């Protein structure tokens, strides 16, 4: 392993990063226009992706909300699991690693912005995480890792330094949607859709093919932003059961923006799919410990 790679890995440990991987830009040849690493950093040779796991004590706040009706505890997830701290932590870590590369090599390093606190994204961090060997796509459309399932946040750094790539994940399939389908069963709006009934997205990275559900984002946002009373909102800001992007924007305009803390439009009101995905020792961490009564307690769709 090159000295630079070794030192970046040591730095990542000191920053509290749980996983880190390296990918060559050849793994991004199918990226859409404008989203290839070299479209962001001309001359980019390596994409570094790291993951910071969510605390189990933060995930369990979601169980209290979904299973015990403690919606007030969703603010713990909002702060420490979703929009706030993990994204700032990832942003600071991206910056620290990029600074380290520029200060210790002749390479240029560009930290990518992270998470929903940002107003745009540069490359697809999900695809980069798979390319860097951190996990595979789960049916729910986000990356699942063997150790932490989907309960992890990622950050990425682009650099012109050429650093040896890690192998992509080649362990046993983590997600078998037809046998599992929990993310679809717990989804309150049908945004994920039942396996076999849903349009799929397909992607090829370095010769490996992946597919995941084409999640209906307007339906998902309806739940994330609690746009109806049945989803925890104060009013029915949205009446369409199958909203389009314009309907969501219109509902957002109707929603009050005061008293919501730093993030005026809340986006943390759901997360059931990520919370109940069984990958990442879910049973040991949450069922056996009594922190959750199990995904079946919140099944909405029982078609499987
Ligand atoms: S966050 Fe909620 S609404 Fe969105 S896909 Fe997951 S379970 Fe469905
Ligand atoms: S909940 Fe099940 S089907 Fe959904 S992503 Fe996780 S393992 Fe796959």
Task: Kindly describe this structure.
By secondary structure, the chain is of the alpha+beta class. The chain has one domain (3-298). It is 33% helix and 13% strand. It is built from eleven helices and eight strands. The chain has helices at 3-14, 37-40, 56-68, 74-82, 85-104, 125-131, 182-186, 217-224, 245-254, 272-276, 282-287, and strands spanning 19-24, 46-53, 109-111, 136-137, 143-144, 152-159, 200-205, 208-213. It has a four-stranded antiparallel β-sheet with strand order 1-2-6-3, sandwiched between helices. A two-stranded antiparallel ribbon has the order 4-5. The longest helix is centred in the N-terminal third of the chain and has 20 residues, at 85-104. The radius of gyration is 19 Å and the shape is globular. It starts with a helix and ends in a 17-residue tail after the last helix. One iron/sulfur cluster (SF4) binds next to helix 7.
Concise account of the structure shown:
A hairpin with a 5-residue loop joins β4 and β5. This protein has 11 helices and 8 strands.
Topology:
Elements: H1 3-14, E1 19-24, H2 37-40, E2 46-53, H3 56-68, H4 74-82, H5 85-104, E3 109-111, H6 125-131, E4 136-137, E5 143-144, E6 152-159, H7 182-186, E7 200-205, E8 208-213, H8 217-224, H9 245-254, H10 272-276, H11 282-287
Helix pairs in contact: 1-5, 3-4
Bound molecules: iron/sulfur cluster (2 copies).
One iron/sulfur cluster binds at residues 138-140, 144, 175, 177, 180-183, 277-279.
């Amino acid at each position: 392993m090159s000295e630079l790679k070794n030192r970046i890995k040591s730095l990542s440990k000191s920053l509290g990063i749980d996983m880190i991987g390296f990918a060559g830009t050849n793994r991004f040849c199918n990226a859409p226009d404008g989203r290839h690493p070299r479209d962001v950093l001309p001359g980019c040779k390596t994409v570094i992706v790291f993951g910071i796991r969510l605390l189990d004590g933060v995930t369990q706040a979601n169980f209290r909300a979904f299973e015990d009706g403690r919606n007030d505890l969703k603010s713990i997830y909002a702060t420490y699991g979703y929009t706030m701290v993990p994204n700032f932590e990832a942003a600071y870590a991206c910056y620290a690693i990029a600074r380290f590369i520029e200060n210790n090599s002749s390479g240029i390093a560009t930290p990518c912005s992270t998470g929903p606190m940002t107003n745009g994204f540069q490359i697809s961090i999900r695809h980069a995480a798979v390319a860097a060997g951190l996990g595979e796509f789960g049916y729910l459309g986000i990356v699942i890792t063997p150790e932490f399932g989907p309960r992890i946040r990622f950050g990425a750094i682009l650099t012109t330094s050429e650093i040896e790539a890690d192998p992509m994940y080649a362990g046993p399939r983590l997600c078998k949607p037809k046998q599992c389908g929990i993310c679809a069963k717990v989804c309150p709006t049908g945004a994920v859709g039942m396996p076999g009934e849903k349009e799929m997205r397909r992607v090829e990275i370095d010769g490996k093919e992946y597919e995941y559900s084409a999640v209906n984002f307007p339906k998902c946002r309806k739940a994330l932003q609690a746009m109806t009373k049945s989803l925890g909102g104060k009013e029915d800001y949205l009446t369409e059961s199958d909203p389009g992007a314009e309907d969501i924007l219109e509902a957002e305009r109707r929603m009050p923006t005061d008293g919501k803390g730093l993030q005026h439009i809340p986006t943390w009101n759901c997360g059931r799919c990520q919370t109940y995905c069984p990958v990442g020792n879910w049973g040991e961490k949450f069922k056996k410990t009594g922190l959750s009564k199990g995904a079946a307690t919140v099944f909405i769709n029982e078609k499987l």
